[in-house]
Amino acid sequence: MADFPTFDPQLKTMLSRLYIKNVAIISELELSFPGSMNILTGETGAGKSILLGAIGLLLGERASSDLIRTGSDRALVEGTFTIGDPAWLKTLLQSEEIDTTPPDLVIRREITSRGQNRIFINDQVVSLNLLRSIGDRLVDLHGQHDHQSLLNQDLQKQFLDDFCGNSALLDEFKTVWTEWDQSNRNLAKLKKERQSLLEKQKLSAFQLKEIDDAGVHAGEDSDLEQELNRLDHAGFLFQTSGAVAWSLTGDEAQNLHAQLTDVLKKLEELVRIDPALAEYQKELQSASISIKETGRFFAQYADRVVVDPERQVAVRNRLDLINRLKKKYGPTLTEVLDLRERLAGELAGDLNVDGRIAAMETMVDELKAKTEKLASGLSDRRSKGAVRLARSVIDQLTGLGLEKCRFEIRVTSETDPGSPFQKAGTPVKMNQDGWDQVVFLISTNAGEELKPLSKVASGGEISRIMLAIKAATAEAAGVNVLIFDEIDTGVSGKIASAVGKVLTQLSVNRQIFVITHLPQVASIPGDHYQVRKSVQNGSTESTVIQLGQQERIEEIARLLSGESVTDRSRAQAADLLGLA
């Protein structure tokens, strides 16, 4: 048997233990992974995807109560990770006030049939977002159909950024771009507010002018209403007030004042006889004076009463004007005048909207310039990295049976006349990861022109390209645990052996898990685990066992010949394992 690739667990992160209980058809399972290469095989439906799903839960994938094994009310998945370089993790955990004393990282997911889902790191409850942040740094899980996602240009850009080590620069760019985007939105909002304010000021100025042009003053409406009432009844007021004056003092013989004078003369005689009546004498004397003055007043009042139709019309028109103002701005004249003071104050106040807009425009321009500078830096790194990554991928693809392959990573930008961002004087489209459009181009046969992956690559070619990219970017990505679920889809024979060699080389510096149906891949040096499904007491159960040498020969022979294992297939298996 070939030697296992050397691997120093003290220097790298690795998944050292996995415990699963009551997940789908797995009743209880505990596995240890001491080595760097871990191969998993098994019949279709045996439970390999369940195993990967359980690992996915440890990395932050969403959980569902549907995962719980029939007849159970709780499922549990626990993984122990040995952390070779714990600095980043320690910083992250300490920021969440989580104990960093244990040397290993223990992640546990508990799911109940009631829908409760709890996450623990080192026995402390944590959020799903934190788990995802950690999971992204721990494991790169390549699912069964993930190689198809390589056709997505956004993922192609992500691979290039990983290879270029653009993470920190990209984070800085996203921060600045987000600040620019928010500031630009605020500027647009402020300009809209200014327009609204100008319209409001225009209306306020009109309203103020309308009130000022009317020249109204407090209490004027009440005074005018009284005056109009007098003008409307001028004839009656003249006749009646004159009659009152005549009755009080007009006819010297008949008026009330003359009659009271006669009464006072008689009372004077009574007082001489009975001084006790003097008090009443004084009261009548006072009444006589009042009657005389009142009569004089009404006589003068009657003289002042004037029938004036022109004034009557003017007062009525003035009241109509005031009532229109009250209806529009009131309902009282006091409220109209209060509004007038507020309008005058608003128009006199300095809201400094233009100053705020100028300051915001300066900020937006500064952030725009910084965004363009960072985008240019990203673009430069991507352009240079694209050449290096393409060369590395070609080297990998050559070893994977694509000797005539040409591979190129094209970094371009999209012109956008409406964009405020300028690249070499040309307005270009910008988003939160820069102004670059990244596309992977390939030609798999001599003489063919380069075309996007989606237009030329077959399933087997895409699988090999994905593996080549993973191999080329693994070191830069900084993830030390790689899981490949059928990365060998669409290949066989010599190409499958080449895939195995690439995986073996990857395992020198990181921990690899590979799920495969190909004997050439299953026979690479490493720990081999077989996933089995059985029915016990009417219940289906999935188990995983680590294969010894002879068991491994049998399993690879099964992969070679199907269910009918023959001596010939066993010999071929032994040959693949280097045991012949």
Describe the structure using short key phrases.
single chain, 580 residues, alpha+beta, Rossmann fold, 6-stranded antiparallel sheet, 6-stranded mixed sheet, 18 helices, 17% strand, elongated
Describe the protein.
- The protein has 580 residues and is an alpha+beta fold.
- Among the domains are: 200 residues, P-loop containing nucleotide triphosphate hydrolases (Rossmann fold, 3-Layer(aba) Sandwich); 149 residues, no CATH class.
- The protein contains 18 helices and 17 strands.
- It has a 6-stranded antiparallel sheet, covered by helices on one side. It has a 6-stranded mixed sheet with strand order 8-14-15-3-16-17, sandwiched between helices.
- The radius of gyration is 49 Å and the shape is elongated.
Question: Could you outline the blueprint of secondary structure elements for this entry?
Answer:
Blueprint: E1 14-23, E2 26-32, E3 37-42, H1 48-59, E4 74-82, H2 87-95, E5 104-112, E6 117-121, E7 124-125, H3 128-138, E8 139-142, H4 153-164, H5 167-214, H6 220-232, H7 234-250, H8 256-273, H9 278-304, H10 309-329, H11 333-348, H12 353-399, E9 406-412, E10 422-423, E11 426-427, E12 437-443, E13 451-452, H13 453-456, H14 459-477, E14 481-485, H15 493-506, E15 511-515, H16 519-522, E16 527-536, E17 539-546, H17 549-561, H18 567-576
Parallel strand pairs: 3-15, 3-16, 8-14, 14-15
Antiparallel strand pairs: 1-2, 1-4, 4-5, 5-6, 6-7, 9-12, 10-11, 12-13, 16-17
